[in-house]
């Protein structure tokens, strides 16, 4: 079920509040107050709080998939593709820590067809990365280990960054992406 197009400022306010207070701890009144509008006016932009949560998830996953497709479709080696994916994933997490926090903490708050659709998108992203890792294993560039397990291990590095990373802190997104790429790729490159 596709998300209703929601104004970016409404999504931003909901993202910030869901990240800080949690989905269940945030009311439509909280969101309306953050926007400086009446609660009744908020319902002109969105039908429900779950609509907002779904839109946040969908927007983030769509961006991740779109950028990953471009990398996977390139003529680069598996090692170069994996490094590019780690960079883009780390950048997305670092640029939108609040949305990633919502994605991680509130994934069980989306229900029905929407949840099924989000799971399919998440799985598509993981399958694309697994394809790159699998190609590296098959070519002998990466260690001969289960590509699925390697993929989950590699994706955990940037994925959980949202739990501690803060923009403007001592480590920048590019430096972090370089570290993750070094750790992941050096850990699986066949010697």
Question: Would you kindly provide a written description of the structure presented here, covering whatever features stand out?
Answer:
The structure is a single chain. The radius of gyration is 18 Å and the shape is elongated. The chain has helices at about 10-20, 30-35, 40, 50-70, 80-95, 95-105, 110-140, 145-160, 175-190. It is built from 9 helices and no strands.
Give a topology summary.
Blueprint: H1 8-21, H2 28-35, H3 39-42, H4 49-72, H5 78-95, H6 97-105, H7 112-139, H8 147-159, H9 173-188
Helix pairs in contact: 1-2, 1-4, 1-6, 4-5, 4-6, 4-7, 5-7, 5-8, 5-9, 7-8, 8-9
How would you concisely characterize the structure shown here?
The chain has helices at 8-21, 28-35, 39-42, 49-72, 78-95, 97-105, 112-139, 147-159, 173-188. It is mainly α and 191 residues long.
Query: How many strands, what sense, and barrel or not for the largest sheet?
Result: none
Structural class: mainly alpha
- Span between termini: 46 Å
The helix/strand order is: HHHHHHHHH
| Portion of residues within helices | over 70%
Number of helices in the DSSP assignment: 9
| Rounded average pLDDT | 92
How much of the polypeptide forms β-strand, as a percent range? under 5%
Question: How many strand units?
Answer: 0
**How would you describe the shape?**
elongated
Q: Which labels suit this protein?
A:
mainly alpha, 9 helices
């Amino acid at each position: 079920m596709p998300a209703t197009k929601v104004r970016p400022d409404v999504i931003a306010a909901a993202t910030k509040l869901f990240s800080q207070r949690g989905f269940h701890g945030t009311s439509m009144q909280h969101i309306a107050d953050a926007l400086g509008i009446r609660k009744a006016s908020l319902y002109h932009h969105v039908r429900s709080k779950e609509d907002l949560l779904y839109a946040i998830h969908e927007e983030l996953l769509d961006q991740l998939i779109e950028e990953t497709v471009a990398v996977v479709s390139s003529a680069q080696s598996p090692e170069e593709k994996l490094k590019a994916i780690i960079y883009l994933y780390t950048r997305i997490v670092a640029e939108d820590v609040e949305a990633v926090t919502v994605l991680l903490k509130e994934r069980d708050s989306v229900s029905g067809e929407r949840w099924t659709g989000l799971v399919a998108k998440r799985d598509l992203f993981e399958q694309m990365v697994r394809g790159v890792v699998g190609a590296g294993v098959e070519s002998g560039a990466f260690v001969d280990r289960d590509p699925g397990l390697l993929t989950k291990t590699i994706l955990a590095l940037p994925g959980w960054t949202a739990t501690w990373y803060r923009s403007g802190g001592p480590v920048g997104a590019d430096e972090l992406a370089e570290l993750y790429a070094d750790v992941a790729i050096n850990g699986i490159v066949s010697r």
